[in-house]
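User: DUF397 domain-containing protein. Structure?
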Amino acid sequence: MTSQEFSGLRWRKSSRSSNYGNCVEVASSGATIAARDSKDQEGGVLVLGVATWASFLDGIRAGRFDRSGGHQ
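Assistant: Predicted structure:
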């Protein structure tokens, strides 16, 4: 999906993000969460259900996606 399909949403990024545009932005719309690259706001959007998004965040917190090897 593209950002144009989500133009009416309020996009947010972490307060820890810098002002250099290297951020992930997220927006919610009912039962879905949308994520996009702040450097390419007109590009593609990853859309996940709320439960899948929560599982994804749990995986991040657990280190499952760390490049250093994390949990597999």
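The longest strand covers residues 24-29. The helical segments are 50-61.
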